[in-house]
């Protein structure tokens, strides 16, 4: 198997789990290699209850405790309210926790033989009761007769046990289906049964829930067969679990799935990725709702005390991790990674979660930071900002203590990273200042332009960033190459003696994140993937940094034409050696001189053929995106991490780093209208009404130009439009003048135009013809 499973997400800490027990190694003959997957350990059981360790009840005692509370609700119309039997003598399940913190980001393409799932004898299944056609015919008969007996009997039999579930929904009851790519389940039949279930009478729905209880109690002991996994896979899709009154059953189902061995999780992951987008999204939304309502229940009396079910949320988070891994295996993903965000977590104490993760590590206490894919980028920004602020405070405090201990008079300037630069020598002065003040990089940034009066209240800092980025990324400067086809910059492969300016760019990006400044930088997504490879600077300086697995898709984001040519080479049906006449060698122009590089030893003498073309494309892509720019990117990497050296980076995906640095591309001009401040105008003034009528009617490209004209970037900060602090000021000049922008303060100076037509004309001219960042 070629795909690598990374858990919980490509940009988050990986989990290394224990291998399956020795006695479960198997006689498996034709099994794919399984990539690693997160699995439960035997550590923390406290969940979100910080003080109640080990208080984990058995399934039977849980149901017994809940039964009296549910009796009063029996007469409701909800399908899930039923009296559970007092089942005794059920062995307590092992607690759930997970290991997630890992300093190095790794990519593992295959697992050891110990991690392969064992093959257990498949049980003899009952005779398949009905086909999907038979079931649908029974449902149609109900519409005319009103008699649910046949349908009720089907549900009663099917959900009574795991073997019956397999007998009903397995494509072929005699086939084993011991592969990760095919669950052997008739998905169409499962969907039909569940779609019908919610429209059946209450006694039918209660029958299904009682059957699930019996199945879970009966089947969780002992080693698992693939039929057991199929049953879990089917039960997890039950839409009845959307109802809070079924959450006790749902929690135990999740727990049993979460505590499966790693090899079983591999099967589930690959089966999940075969679900339709609709069904997959329903699973994710159901789990997110389960977590949200356990955290903030609308009716707390509906649930057992948190001290008795602290494992609910860890179990749900673990199953979400399996779904997240499945989603990342599909290209394109089944759903956007943002659909895994749980906005409820924005309202909990995120720093407590972060400190728990930091202080207790892998196996003592649960933290949502162990599953960062559920934390929104806005919440992660809060964690990073507060972690940054704490580091700033600690460093400033230490500077103050050092001054006092040496009996020197404290100076408030020691609390800041003070940059004094000349506009005429912006790059060199900035480089010198940052080099001399390397120990102060984590202090609050203050910028002063030599020979200019004024205090930096944020405007000078932003201007310094904008001017510096504008100069460094200019094509004449030679550090970066702008690719018109992809509208992005990439590192120049030209060799030089000093790469300190690349380090400067990395420091600038780090300072921007650290000081909540949005930069107008256009790097391709693979740049941020490289920036997190690894997310923490390795202690061994000999370990390469900024190297990651790259593909033709990554190259396409920078050089689409070249990537298209390589893709054609891979799909060419003729004789590659004769038609392309290429060798394992690449040519690059450096200062007017064509230089050649071998992709492998003796590459100039090795022809590209139909047999080795995949290797050629991979080596070519790796050379362009990794090897040819290694020194440049390594300097850039170390510059960024010299400022942002924080474990909080381990929580981020590459896409989220890009959003933190450059902002989000999603514009909401109505939100901007609601948050705009006015100076000299009121929002009811005719000119302002004209302005918003025009702007809200603009196409997206003109809206982006307006945002770029007024703020220096056409992207939105992580916190949304409200974080822009956008202001429209009255410009008491002739209405023949164009609008003026102060990008350092996100301010638009607008003359009082007398008509909407005049305003629209002047505004379009102004935003379409401004140079660079439109600085004044």
Automatic annotation (TrEMBL):
<keyword id="KW-0597">Phosphoprotein</keyword>
<keyword id="KW-0808">Transferase</keyword>
<comment type="function">
    <text>E3 ubiquitin-protein ligase which accepts ubiquitin from an E2 ubiquitin-conjugating enzyme in the form of a thioester and then directly transfers the ubiquitin to targeted substrates.</text>
</comment>
<comment type="pathway">
    <text>Protein modification; protein ubiquitination.</text>
</comment>
<feature type="region of interest" description="Disordered">
    <location>
        <begin position="1"/>
        <end position="46"/>
    </location>
</feature>
<dbReference type="InterPro" id="IPR044611">
    <property type="entry name" value="E3A/B/C-like"/>
</dbReference>
<dbReference type="GO" id="GO:0000209">
    <property type="term" value="P:protein polyubiquitination"/>
</dbReference>
<feature type="compositionally biased region" description="Basic and acidic residues">
    <location>
        <begin position="21"/>
        <end position="34"/>
    </location>
</feature>
<dbReference type="InterPro" id="IPR035983">
    <property type="entry name" value="Hect_E3_ubiquitin_ligase"/>
</dbReference>
<keyword id="KW-0833">Ubl conjugation pathway</keyword>
<protein>
    <recommendedName>
        <fullName>Probable E3 ubiquitin-protein ligase HECTD2</fullName>
        <ecNumber>2.3.2.26</ecNumber>
    </recommendedName>
</protein>
<feature type="active site" description="Glycyl thioester intermediate">
    <location>
        <position position="744"/>
    </location>
</feature>
<dbReference type="InterPro" id="IPR000569">
    <property type="entry name" value="HECT_dom"/>
</dbReference>
<feature type="domain" description="HECT">
    <location>
        <begin position="437"/>
        <end position="776"/>
    </location>
</feature>
<dbReference type="GO" id="GO:0061630">
    <property type="term" value="F:ubiquitin protein ligase activity"/>
</dbReference>
<feature type="compositionally biased region" description="Low complexity">
    <location>
        <begin position="7"/>
        <end position="20"/>
    </location>
</feature>
<dbReference type="Pfam" id="PF00632">
    <property type="entry name" value="HECT"/>
</dbReference>
């Amino acid at each position: 198997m070629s795909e690598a499973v990374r858990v919980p997400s490509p940009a988050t800490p990986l989990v290394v789990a224990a291998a399956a027990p020795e006695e479960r190694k198997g006689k498996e003959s034709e099994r794919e290699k399984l990539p690693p997957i997160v699995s439960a350990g035997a550590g923390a059981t406290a969940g979100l209850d910080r003080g109640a360790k080990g208080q984990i009840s058995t399934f039977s005692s849980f149901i017994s405790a809940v039964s009296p509370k549910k009796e009063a609700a029996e007469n409701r119309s909800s399908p899930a309210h039923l009296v559970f039997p007092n089942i005794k003598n059920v062995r307590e399940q092992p607690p759930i926790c997970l290991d997630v913190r890992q300093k190095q980001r790794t990519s593992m393409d295959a697992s050891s033989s110990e991690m392969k799932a064992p093959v257990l004898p498949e049980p003899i299944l009952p005779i398949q009761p009905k086909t999907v056609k038979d079931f649908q015919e029974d449902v149609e008969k109900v519409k005319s007769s009103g008699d649910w007996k046949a349908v009720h009997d089907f549900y009663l039999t099917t959900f009574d046990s795991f073997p019956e579930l397999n007998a009903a929904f397995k494509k072929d009851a005699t086939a084993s289906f011991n592969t990760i790519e095919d669950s052997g389940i008739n998905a169409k039949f499962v969907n039909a049964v569940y779609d019908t279930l919610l429209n059946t009478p209450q006694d039918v729905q209660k029958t299904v829930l009682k059957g699930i209880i019996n199945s879970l109690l009966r089947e969780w002991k002992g080693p698992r067969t693939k039929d057991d996994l199929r049953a879990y896979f089917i039960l997890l899709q039950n839409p009845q679990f959307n109802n809070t009154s079924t959450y006790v059953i749902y929690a135990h189902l999740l727990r049993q799935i979460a505590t499966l061995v790693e090899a079983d999780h591999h099967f589930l992951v690959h089966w999940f990725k075969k679900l339709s987008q609709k069904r997959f999204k329903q699973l994710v939304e159901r789990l997110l709702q389960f977590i949200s309502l356990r955290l903030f229940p609308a009716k707390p009396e509906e649930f057992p005390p948190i001290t008795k079910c602290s494992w609910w949320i860890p179990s749900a988070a673990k199953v979400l991790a399996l779904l997240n891994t499945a989603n990342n295996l599909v290209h394109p993903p089944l759903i956007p990674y943002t659909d895994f965000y749980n906005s409820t977590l924005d309202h909990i104490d995120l720093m407590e979660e972060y400190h728990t993760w930091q202080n207790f590590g892998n196996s003592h206490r649960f933290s949502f930071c162990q599953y960062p894919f559920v934390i929104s980028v806005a919440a992660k920004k809060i964690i990073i900002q507060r972690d940054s602020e704490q580091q700033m405070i600690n460093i400033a405090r230490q500077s103050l203590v050092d001054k006092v201990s040496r009996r020197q008079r404290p100076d408030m300037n020691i609390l800041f990273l003070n940059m004094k630069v000349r506009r005429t020598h912006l790059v060199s002065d900035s480089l010198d200042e940052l080099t001399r003040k390397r120990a102060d990089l984590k202090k609050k940034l203050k910028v002063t332009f030599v020979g200019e009066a004024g205090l930096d209240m944020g405007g000078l800092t932003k201007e310094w960033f904008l001017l510096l980025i504008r100069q460094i990324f200019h094509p004449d400067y030679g550090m970066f190459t702008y690719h018109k086809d992809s509208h992005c910059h990439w590192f120049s492969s030209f060799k030089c003696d000093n790469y300190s300016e690349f380090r400067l760019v990395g420091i600038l990006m780090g300072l921007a994140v650290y000081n909540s400044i949005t930069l107008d930088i256009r790097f391709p997504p693979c740049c941020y993937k490289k920036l997190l490879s690894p997310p923490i600077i390795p202690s061994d300086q000999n370990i390469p940094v900024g190297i990651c697995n790259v593909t033709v898709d990554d190259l396409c984001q920078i050089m689409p034409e070249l990537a298209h040519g390589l893709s054609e080479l891979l799909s060419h049906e003729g004789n590659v050696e004769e038609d392309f006449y290429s060798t394992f060698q690449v040519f690059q122009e450096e200062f007017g001189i064509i230089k050649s590089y071998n992709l492998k030893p003796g590459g100039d003498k090795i022809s590209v053929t139909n047999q080795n073309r995949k290797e050629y494309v991979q080596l070519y892509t790796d050379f362009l995106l990794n090897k040819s720019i290694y020194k440049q990117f390594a300097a850039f990497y170390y510059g960024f991490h010299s400022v942002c050296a924080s474990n909080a980076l381990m929580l981020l995906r590459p896409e989220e780093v890009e959003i933190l640095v450059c902002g989000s591309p999603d514009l909401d001009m109505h939100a901007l209208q609601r948050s705009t401040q006015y100076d000299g105008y009121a929002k009811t003034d005719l000119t302002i009404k004209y302005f918003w009528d025009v702007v809200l009617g603009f196409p997206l490209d003109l809206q982006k130009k307006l945002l770029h004209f007024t703020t220096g970037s056409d992207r939105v900060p992580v916190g949304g439009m409200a974080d822009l602090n956008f202001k429209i000021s009255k410009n008491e000049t002739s209405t023949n003048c164009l609008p003026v922008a102060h990008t350092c303060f996100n301010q638009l100076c607008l003359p009082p135009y007398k008509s909407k037509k005049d305003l629209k004309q002047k505004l379009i001219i102004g935003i379409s013809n401004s140079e660079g960042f439109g600085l004044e």
